[in-house]
Write a structure and sequence with these properties.
There is one protein chain. This protein has one domain (about 5-80). About 5% of the residues are buried. It has strands at about 5-10, 15-20, 40-45, 50-55, 70-75. By secondary structure, it is mostly beta strands. The strands form 2 sheets. Strands 2-1-5 form a 3-stranded antiparallel β-sheet, with no helix packed on it.
């Protein structure tokens, strides 16, 4: 696991969402960015020298009856060897 999201609810309970390299995240400067098994390619920029990519990850809250207090991004056991994870945005929706 490269990193995880720790979702904390107002009642103090938590849910952990593990993110694996090559499944849920990849190097943003990969030569040929493409969708991964657990994510979609949200943005890419390719020029003569480099390519850059940002991935989008959809998570469905298993406790939708609870109010989310916080979302924390934490390194996993492989995290400090693979770069710095960044959470660009977080969007909430009712029952998509």
């Amino acid at each position: 696991m490269v990193f995880q999201y720790r979702v904390t609810y107002e009642d103090g309970s938590e849910t952990v969402i593990p993110i694996q390299i090559t499944r849920g995240v990849e190097d943003y400067a990969k030569p040929s960015p493409q969708a991964l098994p657990e994510t979609a390619l949200a943005w890419q920029d390719i020029d003569e020298k480099d390519s850059r990519a940002v991935y989008t990850y959809q998570w469905n809250n298993p406790n939708s009856d609870k109010t989310i207090k916080s979302v924390t991004l934490e390194y996993g056991e492989e995290g400090n060897k693979k770069g710095i994870p960044v959470l660009f945005a977080l969007t909430a929706a009712d029952n998509l």
